[in-house]
Each structure stands twice: as structure tokens, then as C-alpha cells.
Amino acid sequence: MLLNELLTPERVRVPLRGGSKQDLLQELVALLHDQGAVADAEGVLASVRQREELLSTGVGSGVAIPHGKSNSVPELVMAAGVTREPVDFDSLDGQPVRLMFLLVGPENAAGQHVKALSRISRMVRRDGFRERLVAAQSADEFMALLAEAEAL
Description:
Blueprint: H1 3-6, E1 12-16, H2 21-34, H3 41-54, E2 58-60, E3 63-64, E4 67-69, E5 77-87, E6 97-105, H4 110-124, H5 127-135, H6 139-151
Parallel strand pairs: 1-5, 3-6, 4-6
Antiparallel strand pairs: 2-3, 5-6
Helix pairs in contact: 2-3, 5-6
Main location: cytoplasm
Protein name: Fructose-specific phosphotransferase system IIA component
Domain PTS EIIA type-2: 5-149
């Protein structure tokens, strides 16, 4: 499974408008809802927030990968974005976040969910790639960079 199969330009926001962790989570879930990928936005947001309470999904190096499970979502879906300014996300390394990937899927898609999380984590570990994503000026540029990285 490639990430650009889960993500469309309509599900990418550059820049994200939220100025706090909670605002960003709500914005990304709303983006999925507005695109028809999530019917129960409140339930999905509650699931993502519940997961976030266990341990921050701010994985370090300015990246957060919030995620949750909800049976109101028929299949694994993703939204992403880049913040205009760094946002405190209670990240594991204490650094603020600029790059976000939100994953939401049904309870029975745990395998796909883990594979997608792993794929994102591997890709954003590359300093040059991460910096290029943060510098993207549009959703289309973000998607092109993602497709290019997945072709490697």
C-alpha cells in the first residue's frame, strides 16, 4: 500500500490554520469529513484524542502522526498538512511540530494501519525529504514530493 493511495490533494492542507495541538487535530479530522471520508467527525476526533492521551504522536523532528480507530470509517483514510509556524505538540523529543499526517481506520484494519504508520515513519526520518515536505507551497507540491519519495 502506497501513501498516495490513501491521500489526495483535497486531503492535504498547506498551510494548516490551527495554532494548537487540539486545533490541528480538529482541522485534520474536519478535512476528512469535508471530503466525505469520515461521516462521524466527532466520534473520530474523540478516538484520535483518546489515543493522543495515551502517548503523544509527536514522533520527533517536527513530525506528528496522530491516529485513531473508529468503526464509523469503512476503510483506512489519511489527511496531512504543514503548519505555518511550529506548534507545541507535546512531542517525544520536546520539539514543536510542522508536519502532520492523520490516519484513521476501522478496528479491523489494524494491519494496514500499522503498515501505513511504519511507512510514514520511515519516510519522514530522511532529513532532506522532511524538509522538502515542510517547504511545500501547495497540496499538489506536497503530493508530488510524496509520490517521488515512494517511487524510490
